[in-house]
Amino acid sequence: MAGMKVGEEVFNVEVEGPENAPCLMLSNSLGTTMHMWDAQMPALTQRFRVIRYDARGHGKSVAEDGPYSIEQLARDALNILDALGVEKTHFMGLSMGGMVGMWLLTHARERIGKAVLCNTGAFMGAPDLWNTRIRAARNGQMESLVPQTIDRWFTKEFQEKSPDAVKRVAAMMRSTPPLGYASCCAAIRDMDQREAIRSISNPVLVIVGQHDPATPPSMGGLIAHSIKGARLIDLDAAHISNVEAEAAFTRAVVTFLTAPERAAAPPAEEKPAAAKRAGKKSAAKNQAAGKAPAKKAGKKAAKKAARKAAKKAVKKAPRKAAKKAGKAVARKAGKKAAKKSAKNTAKKAAKKPAKKAPAKKPAKKARKSAKKSGKKAKR
Prior knowledge:
This protein is of the alpha/beta class. The protein has a domain at 3-259: Alpha/Beta hydrolase fold, catalytic domain (Rossmann fold, 3-Layer(aba) Sandwich). It is 55% helix and 12% strand. Strands 1-2-4-3-5-6-7-8 form an eight-stranded mixed beta sheet, sandwiched between helices. Helix 4 (128-138) runs antiparallel to helix 8. The radius of gyration is 48 Å and the shape is globular. The protein starts with a strand and ends with a helix.
C-alpha cells in the first residue's frame, strides 16, 4: 500500500506485520518520512501490525500550503485509522509525531492503547526560531537549513561514526516539500499542550536524548511529570534517538509495548453515572472515616507538643533556679563577709594600746624652775 485516499486527500501509508497482531501506528518527525523508522521495523513487525505514514506536508503525502495545526495533523492520523478500519492502536511518534500523539491522548484517548512519546515537547517556546525557518523554506532556502538541522539531530561522534545513516536522514530533509515543511513549522510554533496533557490516563513511555538540543531532556521530563504513571528513560543520543541509539531505543519500546497492560482509570468526565455515584459515596465515606483519624492525630500532636514543652520547661527551670540561688547565695555570703570584717576590725582596734599622753613634770622641778625665773626678773 502506498498512496491511500483519505477523504479527498492522498497519504502515503504502509501497513506491515501479522494481520491478527495488535496495531501500532508510527508518526514521523518534522523534515523526515515514514522511513525514519526503518531500523525498528524488523523487531516491531514480529509483534505488531505496524501502520506508518508520511505526515501531511512530508514525503509522498499531501503537501498543500498551510499553515497547519497539530490538531489537523492528529486528525489526519485518525482519518487514516478510520480508512483502514482500525478502532484502536498503540502509538509512537518522535518530535512532531510525539506532539500528534499528545493531542490524540487528550482528545481521542479511546482510540489509543499505549503511547511512546520520543524527543518531543508540549510547548516549543518563542516563535522567532520557527518564523525564521518558515521564511527560509518559503524563500527557496531549504538546503541552507540542512547542515544546522543535522547538527541538532545527531551528535558529532555519531556523524563521524555512522555517516551513511546520517546521509539517509539528510536526504529525507532535502526531499521535504518546502510549503509542507513551512506549514508544519507553523503548527509546532502555535502549539501549547502543557495543561491538556495533565488529563492523559493511558500508559505512556517518554524517551529523551541526553544530548538533544532541539527538545532537551527537561521538555520530556515535563511531559512525564504531567502524565500520571508515565515512565521516562534517557538515551545516549541527540534528537533522532531511534537512529543514533537504535538498539537501546528498540529494546525500550518493545519492552514497554509488550508488557502486561494495567487498566487505566477513565477520566472523571467519562465515568458512567453509577460509577460517579459510587465515587461520591466512597468519597463521603472516606471523609467521615477520616474525621476520627484526624481527631486522633490532633490529640497525638497535642500530647507530643505538651511533652516537648514540659521537657523544655524542665531544662529551663534548673537553669533559672540555679541562677536565682546563685544570686541569693552571693548576697548572703556578701552580707556575712561584711559582718565578719566589721567584727574583726573592732577586735583589732580593742586590742591595740591607746597612745600615751605626755607625762607631767614633777612638782619639785616645776617650783625650782619658777624660782629661778623670779630671780632673773629682779635683776
